[in-house]
Design a protein that fits this description.
Elements: E1 6-10, H1 15-26, E2 32-35, H2 44-49, E3 58-61, E4 64-67, H3 69-79, H4 91-117, H5 121-146, H6 159-165, H7 168-178, H8 189-199, H9 211-229
Parallel strand pairs: 1-2
Antiparallel strand pairs: 1-3, 3-4
GO biological process, one term: toxin catabolic process
Domain GST N-terminal: 4-84
GO molecular function: glutathione transferase activity
Length: 230
């Protein structure tokens, strides 16, 4: 059995694990993917590697663990510098990409997730409006960041593409479950086209989970467990 210097711990049902997996694919880094269930009991290796948050993903490079998805993507970009550049080389463009990535994690994903977790129609409506507003802002950001190319990162997938693209299957599941439209051709036409291009890229297409599989997980595990914590 092959022994890999690089290991990735997590499940591809997690958008944050997807980020790390896409970054490794973009850089053509050989690695071992170690499946870890979201609600499963964590192994000693997992808990030892991330004793602070005890969350996935975890990248182990040699015997050194790196945690938090965006930090992992940045680490991969820096360490395997010979591959395609993920973070923008221009300091201003890099700062803008990091700003929007932080917005996605700190606010936007929480709001669209609330569409299926909210108690009552008013709360659901507020979450939907906030989520769509965020997408309109991201449509404007795409115009500036892409500079006329098909990705936020230009002609190739970059940092902000990974940060947003990891949520695309989750967006689709939320649309189906809540009977709403989020990334819509009429409202955000550039993001709509971007999403199509992102999902068929060689670094991405075999990473994103099937919609039906994720839907089953969300319906029978994720929603019930999260609502019980509200």
């Amino acid at each position: 059995m092959a022994s890999y210097e690089v290991k990735l711990l997590g499940t591809l049902l997690s958008p944050f694990v997807i980020r790390a997996k896409i970054a490794l694919n973009l850089k053509s880094v050989e690695h071992e993917f170690m499946e870890v269930g979201i609600f499963a009991k964590k192994s000693d290796l997992f808990l030892k590697s991330n004793p602070v948050h005890k969350k996935m993903p975890i990248l182990i490079h040699g015997d050194r663990p790196i945690c938090e998805s965006l930090i992992i993507v940045q680490y991969i970009d820096k360490v395997w510098a010979s591959g395609p550049v993920i973070l923008p080389s221009d300091p201003y463009d890099r700062a803008i990409a990091r700003f929007w990535a932080a917005y996605l994690d700190d606010k936007w994903f929480r709001r669209i997730r609330a569409i299926i977790l909210s108690q009552g129609e008013e709360a659901k409506k507020a979450a939907l409006e906030d989520g769509i507003h965020g997408l309109v802002l991201l449509e404007e950001a795409f115009t500036k960041c892409s500079k006329g190319e098909k990705f936020f990162g230009g002609d190739k997938i970059g940092y902000l593409d990974i940060a947003l693209g990891c949520f695309l299957v989750w967006v689709r599941v939320i649309e189906i479950m809540a009977n709403v439209s989020l990334i819509d051709e009429s409202t955000t036409p550039q993001l709509f086209k971007w999403a199509q291009d992102f999902c068929v890229d060689d670094a991405v297409k075999d990473v994103l989970p099937e919609t039906d599989k994720l839907m089953e997980f969300v319906q029978f595990n994720y929603v019930a467990k999260l609502k019980s914590r509200l």
